């Protein structure tokens, strides 16, 4: 295969005239190391725990090569912003437009409305090179939810593009002012590194995704380019042993990073120095160092390096879509197959899409305009999908639309805002709902999200008998617990006091995910619950405790057949065994039995009776999903439990 002269990573190789920058096969080989590390980590994280640091290697490569080209053009008087950004459009847009469009097409066929809506939003972020800003407010890079975001990996592309908005301007100003460019890069790198280490403890997600805390890695490469651009650096060579020493030291640092850094570490922080300095030393060693010349410049490594940009773009959507379709971590064979498919698609993208659109006489204004229009179309399509709630009218999703809607949280935001205003709740940690705002409440439902997931059914019952239900959202709804810095728990105590002190409230219902068991912490919760029950019963309140529903331990999405795709995860039956449920609550039930003997005036309702029979506890009943995730009821499940609660109350009234 003929290997062409290349210009910078800019997220992958690109063809350019030889006058721009001498092609270095070893840097393509280093790209291969970076992208293979990322792929292996994403597909098999236990095999290469630190593989995600490959992105940091990419940053250093990009900073070095892009800055080298900018400096060469400044020296030759040929630099222009129009030319710089035109090259970036030709380099970045073709593969990215193809991947974004493919994700939208696959999502049309296979994703549920809430999933497709989220994808639309992330396409907007990816097309606008702002994905990092989108994600740092939503999810950490290593969170479980990250596995179901097919465009999460575009955060790194966003950081590079944001960096290259300012860096060419700074470089041009420095050149015209005859400043020492290496010193400029070094000072900016130190400032960025200070932001990185200063923010990693308290602002981990922002530090991971922010260009301010990541720029130092690109600036390391840029600083090396500034050193190489000095006339003295061109005429004075290093002793023969020095390049090999630098290269092997770089290998050691990079290998240490891959072996020692894990997702549990505070990253980037100080840990990011290992891959960043390792990459810097390997690049600085030059193409004649033995490792660079023999290992990194080998034909397989160079070939992977050439397709590293489309390979990076393709691999994560394939793995993420597999996770979504399977509703769990895909089997190893599926993950391996996704990587092989990514390799094939990357080669085809490079061969059929990138090379024809990148250079030569055809890469003029017309193609630039077309690429920009296509990217804008991707962003507009993603925005339309987001604003239209994932297009629930799509034919592929019609058969299971009711169950797909069951996966979405139903919330009356206007009611919540009016309720918070009524009771003077002014923080995001305080939450309430009131059935009839014109009346004082007569029933209070206290609890966390497992109170919220029964509020519709209880509201329907109590409204039907003339009562007015107020739901107060808490953490653990028990008296006197130490918040220990948890603002939700801190907001809980005033809500308990509010419920206790309202003369209009005759009935108080507790519903929470918290289950009692052995251990010192559990003893604190048991004692707090006892004190809570004592205070409310002593105040003459009628107390009802709702025992929780089973944790099903699987994503209820796996119970819904997706149109247009094959999945090994469609779950039949959509249930857990009764024995599993009994094991979940064995110790909890024993403690509740003690409370029942201690407080005979309290009524104890078993929510699981609505879902369980003698053999199983079902997540789907009569073709409708009762759960929206592994432990929260859907709206239909909420209403089902409410009907059982109503029947239970009627039976108690006749005794």
Compile the SSE list and pairings.
Blueprint: E1 6-7, E2 14-15, H1 25-43, H2 54-76, H3 81-110, H4 113-127, H5 131-136, H6 155-176, H7 181-199, H8 204-209, H9 211-229, H10 231-235, H11 241-260, H12 273-285, H13 290-296, H14 299-306, H15 308-326, H16 332-358, H17 365-387, H18 401-405, H19 413-422, E3 431-434, E4 443-447, H20 449-452, H21 455-464, E5 469-473, H22 487-501, E6 507-511, H23 520-538, E7 542-547, E8 575-577, H24 578-598, E9 603-606, E10 616-618, E11 620-621, E12 624-625, H25 635-654
Describe the structure.
Strands 3-5-4-6-7-9 form a six-stranded mixed sheet, with helices on both faces. The chain has a two-stranded antiparallel sheet with strand order 1-2. Strands 8-10 form a two-stranded antiparallel sheet. It is an alpha/beta fold and 655 residues long. The chain contains 25 helices and twelve strands. Helix 1 packs parallel to helix 15, helix 3 packs parallel to helix 15 and helix 3 runs parallel beside helix 17. The N terminus is likely disordered.
Q: Total helix count?
A: 25
Helix content: 55-70%
Radius of gyration: 30 Å
- What is the overall shape? elongated
Report the structural category: alpha/beta
Residue share in β-strands: 5-15%
Tell me about the largest β-sheet. Answer: 6 strands, mixed
Q: Biggest sheet, strands in spatial order? A: 3-5-4-6-7-9
* Overall pLDDT metric: 91
List the uncertain runs: 1-19
| Measured distance between first and last alpha carbons | 87 Å
């Amino acid at each position: 295969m003929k290997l062409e002269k290349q210009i910078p990573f800019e997220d992958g190789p690109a063809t350019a005239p030889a006058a721009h920058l001498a092609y270095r096969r070893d840097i393509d080989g280093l790209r291969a190391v970076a992208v293979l590390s990322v792929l292996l980590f994403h597909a098999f994280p236990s095999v290469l725990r630190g593989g995600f640091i490959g992105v940091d290697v990419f940053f250093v490569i990009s900073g070095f090569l892009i800055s080298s080209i900018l400096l060469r053009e400044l020296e030759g008087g040929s630099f222009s912003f129009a030319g710089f950004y035109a090259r970036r459009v030709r380099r970045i847009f073709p593969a990215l437009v193809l991947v974004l469009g493919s994700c939208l097409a696959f999502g049309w066929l296979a994703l549920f409305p809430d999933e497709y809506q989220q994808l639309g939003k992330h396409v907007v972020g990816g097309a606008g090179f702002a994905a990092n800003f989108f994600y740092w407010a939503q999810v950490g890079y290593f969170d479980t939810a990250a596995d179901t975001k097919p465009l999460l990996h575009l955060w790194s592309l966003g950081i590079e593009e944001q960096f290259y908005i300012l860096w060419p301007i700074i470089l041009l100003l420095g050149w015209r002012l005859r400043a020492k460019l290496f010193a400029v890069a070094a000072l900016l790198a130190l400032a960025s590194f200070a932001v990185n280490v200063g923010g990693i403890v308290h602002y981990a997600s922002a530090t991971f995704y922010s260009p301010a805390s990541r720029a130092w890695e690109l600036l390391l490469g840029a600083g090396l380019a500034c050193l190489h651009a000095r006339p003295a650096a061109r005429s004075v060579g290093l002793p023969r042993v020095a390049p090999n020493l630098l290269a092997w030291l770089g290998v050691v640092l990079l290998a240490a990073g891959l072996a020692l850094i894990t997702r549990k570490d505070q990253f980037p922080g100080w840990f990011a120095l290992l891959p960043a300095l390792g990459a810097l030393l390997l690049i600085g060693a030059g193409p004649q160092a033995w490792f660079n010349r023999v290992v990194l410049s080998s034909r397989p490594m160079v070939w992977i390096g050439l397709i590293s940009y489309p390979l990076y773009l393709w691999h994560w959507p394939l793995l993420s879509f597999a996770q979504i379709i399977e509703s769990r971590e895909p089997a190893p064979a599926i993950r391996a197959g996704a990587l092989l498919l990514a390799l094939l698609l990357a080669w085809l993208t490079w061969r059929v899409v990138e090379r024809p659109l990148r250079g030569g006489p055809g890469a003029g204004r017309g193609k630039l305009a077309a690429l920009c229009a296509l990217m804008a179309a991707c962003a507009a399509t993603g925005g339309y999908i987001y604003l239209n709630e994932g297009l629930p009218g799509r034919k592929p999703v019609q058969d299971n639309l009711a169950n797909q809607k069951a996966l979405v949280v139903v919330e009356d935001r206007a009611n919540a805002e009016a309720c918070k205003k009524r009771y003077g709740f002014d923080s995001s940690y305080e939450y309430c709902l009131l059935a009839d705002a014109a009346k004082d409440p007569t029933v209070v439902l206290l609890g966390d999200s497992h109170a919220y997931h029964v509020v519709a059914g209880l509201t329907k019952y109590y409204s039907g008998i003339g009562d007015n239900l107020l739901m107060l959202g808490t953490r653990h709804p028990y008296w006197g617990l130490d918040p220990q810095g948890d603002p939700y728990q801190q907001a809980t105590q005033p809500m308990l006091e509010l419920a206790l002190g309202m003369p209009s409230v005759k009935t108080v219902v507790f519903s929470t995910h918290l289950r009692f068991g052995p251990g010192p912490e559990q003893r604190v919760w048991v004692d707090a619950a006892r004190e809570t029950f004592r205070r409310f019963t002593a105040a003459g309140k009628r107390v009802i405790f709702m025992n929780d529903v089973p944790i099903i331990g699987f994503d209820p999405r796996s119970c819904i057949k997706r149109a247009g795709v094959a999945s090994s995860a469609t779950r039949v039956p959509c249930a857990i065994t009764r024995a599993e449920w009994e094991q979940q609550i064995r110790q909890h039930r024993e403690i509740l039995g003690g409370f029942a003997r201690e407080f005979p005036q309290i009524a104890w309702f078993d929510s699981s009776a609505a879902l369980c029979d003698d053999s199983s506890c079902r997540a789907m009943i009569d073709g409708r999903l009762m759960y929206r995730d592994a432990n929260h009821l859907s709206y239909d499940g909420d209403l089902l439990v409410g009907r059982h609660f109503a029947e239970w109350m009627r039976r108690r009234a006749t005794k």
